[in-house]
Amino acid sequence: MYIDQPIRHFLDKLASESPEPGGGSVAALTGALGAGLVSMVASLTMGKEKYKDVQLQIEALFKESEKLRNEMQALIQKDTEAYGALSEVYKMPKNTDAEKAARTVKLQEALKKACQVPFEIGLTSLEVAKLSERAADIGNVAAVSDAGVAVLLAQACAQSAALNVKININSIKDQAFNNETWTRMQDVLNQVAALEKSVMATTYRKMG
Amino acid sequence: MYIDQPIRHFLDKLASESPEPGGGSVAALTGALGAGLVSMVASLTMGKEKYKDVQLQIEALFKESEKLRNEMQALIQKDTEAYGALSEVYKMPKNTDAEKAARTVKLQEALKKACQVPFEIGLTSLEVAKLSERAADIGNVAAVSDAGVAVLLAQACAQSAALNVKININSIKDQAFNNETWTRMQDVLNQVAALEKSVMATTYRKMG
User: Fold this and answer.
1) Can the peptide bond before residue A21 be classed as cis, meaning omega within 30 degrees of 0?
2) What is the mean pLDDT of residues B136-164?
3) What pLDDT was estimated at residue A177?
4) Which of A11, A171, B10, B178 sits in a 20 to 30 Å window from A73, CA-based?
5) Among B186, B56, B57, which Cα is nearest to B131's?
6) What are the phi and psi torsion angles at A115 (to 5°)?
7) In whole angstroms, what is the distance from residue A156 CA to residue B30 CA?
8) Contact yes or no for A66 and B15 at CB 8 A
């Protein structure tokens, strides 16, 4: 698993001609960093006398951000696996009509799976953005810039996920699937953009 | 060095109450991921017959993006070190007037150094954004979404760097330094925002 290997290994392989890890895995890692920053803000607020009135909410926030971080960490690998499965299907023979038909069916299935992963990354990034708002609102003010960085990463994650949804959609023939997926993805992008605006305003205001 | 340790270690420590790694290191890692994606687009274009007319430019692009990736990788650590040095100064005694005066001098020096690192991360992110534009313009069209993700990460990096510049500026008494640094930082943010807009437009257009 990439996550158990050195950061340098991930970056070196990313920069190489190896098609994976690619933009989808990077989006998930970016989202994991955002969730990690929310957890950090919560960690720096827990047990602090000055924040005794919000301890229950902060503990809940920490649990939720750690859950999202775990999901994002799993999605780094899931994106690579879906891409690998798709690459295998592209190698299927297409000499006869029967082979072509079988390949088309498998390809459409693999494309939908490969599309599903960045879509899930996008949905998860919206949850990270929501938590960054709570971190900026009730978390340790000395760490408010970290809540700000968290929402910036959530937004970069969402927009990167959208690009990776779009690539797959372009090859998927099921228009109902495409329309529904893209409409929901746009809705996620709009919600994340609104959160980014509001959390950044809070962050700069609290930094003074 | 964080970069030689597993991704999981970085994320676990980020989420903890340990103040480092913090938003500055995360900004640098985000920038390194962006530079790595530019290198990937270049790698996937090198030696391809279809792109034979741009081979020289692509090789130059790869060299430049790898240089920026190395710089960003070094900045991950540099931010942590500057933060560590600052934390040490905060622990200096302040019982007597002489101690207070000595501490203030050291503190102002350490704050400027801690401010310099995210500022450098911001400047480097602008270079990454410029390269992502070239990657989107002349790189393998099959990897154009990766050029798009690169510019999104460059922007998140620049904005995150700005937040970390701002925190330090708030405690720095040298107003001339603060004004110059913040004005230049704003200029970087404006340039990166313009590049993000244009590279995203190119990416969506080329994806079809």
Assistant:
1) yes
2) 98
3) 98
4) A171
5) B57
6) -80, -35
7) 10
8) yes
Cα nearest neighbour of B39 on chain A: A15
Average pLDDT, chain A: 97
**Does the pLDDT at position B19 exceed 90?**
no
Measured between beta carbons, the chain B residues lying within 8 angstroms of A32 are 11
Q: What are phi and psi of A193, to 5 degrees?
A: -60, -40
Please state, in angstroms and rounded to a whole number, the distance separating the CA atoms of residues B111 and B41.
38
Q: What ipTM does the predicted assembly reach? A: 0.97
Nearest to B11 among A15, A73, A153 (CB): A73
Residue type present at position A86: L
Give the model confidence (pLDDT) of A58-77 as tens digits: 999 999 999 999 999 999 99
Give the angle subtended at the CA of B156 by the CAs of A11 and B197, to the nearest 5°.
110
Structure tokens at B74: 């070094």
Q: What is the mean pLDDT of residues B104-127?
A: 97
Angle, vertex CA A163, rays to CA A157 and CA A166, nearest 5: 140
Rounded mean pLDDT, B141-152: 97
CA distance between the termini of chain A: 42
Give the integer Cα–Cα distance in Å for B119 and B163.
Answer: 10
Per-residue pLDDT of A85-132, as tens digits, reads 999 999 999 999 999 999 999 999 999 999 999 999 999 999 999 999
Instruction: Give whole-number Cα distances, B110 to A145, B5, B83, B180, in Å.
Output: 19, 27, 9, 18
- Residues of chain A in contact with residue B149, where contact means CB-CB under 8 angstroms, are 23, 26-27, 160, 163-164
pTM, full prediction: 0.97
Chain A nearest CA to B20, separation (Å): 9
CA of A114, closest CA in chain B: separation in Å? Answer: 15
Do B160 and A166 make contact, defined as CB atoms within 8 angstroms?
A: no
H or E segment at B42?
helix B23-43
